[in-house]
Every structure is written in C-alpha cells, then in structure tokens.
Amino acid sequence: MGAYVAGGGEFKRDTNYITTRITADGADGYPVEPGRYRLIVARACPWANRTIIVRRLLGLEDALSIGFCGPTHDERSWTFDLDPGGVDPVLKIPRLQDAYFARIPNYPKGITVPAIVEVATGQVVTNDFAQITLDFSTQWTAYHREGAPQLYPEPLRDEIDEVAQRIYTEVNNGVYRCGFAGSQESYEAAYDRLFTALDWLSERLADQRYLVGDTITEADVRLFTTLARFDPVYHGHFKCNRAKLSEMPVLWAYARDLFQTPGFGDTTDFHQIKAHYYIVHADINPTRIVPKGPDLSGWLTPHGREALGGRPFGDGTPPGPTRDGERVPDQF
Length: 332
Prior knowledge:
Largest sheet: 4 strands, mixed
Radius of gyration: 19 Å
Helix content: 25-40%
Number of strands: 6
Distance between the termini: 29 Å
Number of helices: 10
Strand content: 5-15%
Mean pLDDT: 95
Order of helices and strands: EEEHEHEEHHHHHHHH
C-alpha cells in the first residue's frame, strides 16, 4: 500500500486505488467468472492477508487462483521470488508491476497487494483491498462453497461498515501512523489515538465474542490481521509499546479465538511477516536484523471465549483443509 509522510511529520496513506470491480453483472466490464482472474497476495501484508482469509472461508479456491509474492520487495515492486525462477507460474511475470503496467503503462502509484489480475490479458483489474473482500462476499456467491459463512450479512452491513471504518482509521492504519511518524508530536498523537481505539475494542469485546452480531464477520477479519502482527512487529518496530497484545487480556483472548479458527491461523505466516517489516523498512530498521521472537506458543493456548456463546460460522461450517501449495509452514 502506498503512503507518505506529510508536513508536520504525520503519516498519510495514498488511497487512490484502481477501483474497477469484478461483479456478478459485469457492470465494469469484468464479470465474475471462474478461472478468469488470479488473486496476487503476500502473506506478510495485513491488507492481502484479509483476502486470503476471506477467499478460504468462502471456499473460492476453485473459482479464483492465488499467487504469492515473497515477503520482501525492492523500492518499486513486489516480486515472485518464492516461485521457481522467480516467475509467477500462471501470469509468467517476475514482478507484480508488470501486471500494473499492462493495465496502466508507467503506473505512477505504489505497486500494492492484494491485486486481482485478469489472466488472459495479464492486466490488474483492481487493487482496492477494502472492496475486494466485500465483493467476494456479495458478488461471488454463485461460487461459494456449501456451508460458506455470511461475512457481510445484509441486516448487519451498516454496523459492520461503521465498526470496520473505525478499525481502519484508528487501528489498521493507526499502527502505521505511529511507525512512520516524522516527529515526536505526531508520533505521540498517533500512539494515543491507537490505544484509545484498542481500549474501545477491549470494552466492546469484553462481553461479546465477535465484533458485530454473534458470528464472524468482515469486521473481525479486518481487525485480526493487525492484531496478529502486533507483538511480532508493531509493538517494537512501530513503537506501539504501551502494552503487548499478550498483555491486553480481552484482545489477546479474542485474537487467539480467531487464530484457532480455520482460515485465520492457517493463513498467518509470522516468519514472512517479520521478514517483510524489518527488512523492507530500512529507514526504521537500518541494520535489517529480524528479531528472533516473540515466542508464538501462546497463540495455541485455551482462550475461553466459547463461554460468551456465539457461533463462528453461523448456520455454515468451517472451511476444509488448506489446499496443496497454499499451506503456511509449521511455525510452532
């Protein structure tokens, strides 16, 4: 995701994305069609991690293939260094920017993940990460697995949108506002905003298992990917150090509950997460030394959140085992 530090040292995120949508009616010229598109992600990236989770929860693996960039990239582009020869096996490109340039020659903005690429043309269709997961839930329904959960149920959409917006501005983006602050004053303001929001979330989740309603929704997916990165990266690297996640009892139990739910922990790669932030952000970490910790074993400990009731998948069922070629290596 593109970003810059504005005057006064405050971090600003560039949110001008390629907003073409892939829809059931094909209104933008890109109808939902199995096999037509490829989702390009990096496990390290929290915004991409959301799309990996939602694709798996909804069972879209057969309809939408996935390609994984490596955890590190150069100034310009994510690269396919995990694949043989450093080339994506479907798109036949070494750098994600090739797909951006195919759509918009000399594309001037950041080369971001997640991105959905049309396989036949090799062109990026969209990198609008917030809309992508909502469209998975609402536009790709013909290809959902049997028992797919309702992650964006109509009666709760207004509340999900409201909660998700606050999570985005204050938490998902809030940690970056701390990490990339260009002055002491902007850092301290960002720190206060972040922990005010985490306190609000702790209060909200103290007596309900999930953020909205009694099942997992899009709002939970959006919060989880930031919480998963909190202790390995944001606490130290981004100076979000009032407390570790593991020292915030409600949020730590909530995060473990989700982590132990199929689709969440099995798409989270702590090794790649740490490699990305500590190696790529050389301005923050000039030595590029990647920390050895934290100890991950706590993620698998009992969380006790079942006592609050709730049904993770509502009337649906958990996703099946992770597909071959998509498994995160064992980290415990």
